[in-house]
Amino acid sequence: xxxxxxxxxxxxxxxxxxxxxxxxxxxxxxxxxxxxxxxxxxxxxxxxxxxxxxxxxxxxxxxxxxxxxxxxxxxxxxxxxxxxxxxxxxxxxxxxxxxxxxxxxxxxxxxxxxxxxxxxxxxxxxxxxxxxxxxxxxxxxxxxxxxxxxxxxxxxxxxxxxxxxxxxxxxxxxxxxxxxxxxxxxxxxxxxxxxxxxxxxxxxxxxxxxxxxxxxxxxxxxxxxxxxxxxxxxxxxxxxxxxxxxxxxxxxxxxxxxxxxxxxxxxxxxxxxxxxxxxxxxxxxxxxxxxxxxxxxxxxxxxxxxxx
Amino acid sequence: xxxxxxxxxxxxxxxxxxxxxxxxxxxxxxxxxxxxxxxxxxxxxxxxxxxxxxxxxxxxxxxxxxxxxxxxxxxxxxxxxxxxxxxxxxxxxxxxxxxxxxxxxxxxxxxxxxxxxxxxxxxxxxxxxxxxxxxxxxxxxxxxxxxxxxxxxxxxxxxxxxxxxxxxxxxxxxxxxxxxxxxxxxxxxxxxxxxxxxxxxxxxxxxxxxxxxxxxxxxxxxxxxxxxxxxxxxxxxxxxx
Lengths: 308, 241
Prior knowledge:
The complex is a heterodimer. Chain A is mainly α. Helices cover about 40% and strands about 5% of the residues of chain A. Chain A has a 3-stranded antiparallel sheet, with no helix packed on it. By secondary structure, chain B is mostly helical.
């Protein structure tokens, strides 16, 4: 009896110690100071291309822009995209550009808490300081909305945010979007959008039991929230399904696919609230990349293109 | 046989196979509506290359296709979705019946657009405006007139007077204002038949009830509207994708 009591105490201490350790485990790099002037137009375009607008606006209920989106129901709980208007209490009005940089590139809140990966910050990891400054300038133009529309509802144990630090240490895989040598500027632009901002992989790449991206890259995901499925968009599979570059460009603008079917599910929203707003040249870049996205042996990062 | 032709045939073969499997086991009204959907899909498949500019334009085929879609839309479609006919082989979501009015108005919007496509079939490009594939129905004195690159000069005084950031003609997001990009303002002005507005009850005599003037629109613009209606409906009421 005494032994049992002792082991309970020991386990309790270990659990408590583990929890304290997780709480104190610092995450995130020191963010550089964002001191550049932002271009609101570039930022607004990037916010549209990155899905900020689609996700943080409850379009179906005609909610105000960026004031909080419809909750995403996942096996881990219901995640409500928060209000990112400049409201001081309910939005991000009290943030600094550095806070935005840390949130987007590292998934860390101004209070140092990790964000859930329902927020696809992995894909925003290589946003430049200029990108952040532009987004900051764009978000500042949005009318502040003083309400929190929906609260996230996440069950135990996933409601312990500190636990995400373990997830970060094991499952986090920041996007690689740097231009590759030997590829055209158009292809590299497509890569930047597909692998980064447009975060195609958030749905089209499978996820492991912990919700980390660990399926074949862009190989499809049959278990998306809301009864949705995303097919493989690897080059070979796209070709087999009758896709061409032109067909992709047209589908990203209109939702109409080469089979004559029209996108439903979350892809309908992606087109309606995302890719249909993009410049034709960017839709084409995405198509060029997707129809030729297989990794090239020994491809190296194009240092010159990175400077552009 | 061109490479494109081969690809097209391969695509058709693949899709036909997929549908044969997907619709396996469907009977009665479920099977009937699936066949209607497949018939409309096939029209869309055949017209899409023309509308993208990848195939020679054939006005007669557009007219025939438009009429085919119209016969499967509207009341014909809603009649094939009796309450309680989900489950089994069906992809229909319950929301079809909890939001019956919205579903019916989308089905009716599809019929209207399909009839409209027949009216616009002769217009490979919009008869009165250069077709740049962006602007909506040309309507006199309409803000939408500025949206599609018809402005070749400086932003108009209207925009400046209203204190908006004018849409720009070059650079990222050209043709759209910062507010439109951020969703603060709708992309298309209300009277250009935005989808959300058209879901609300139609007032007889309003622009919405009458629809835009299809006869002066480019057919690919009407075609695009058909796609938007399909997508709006699939997004709400079809499970899977």
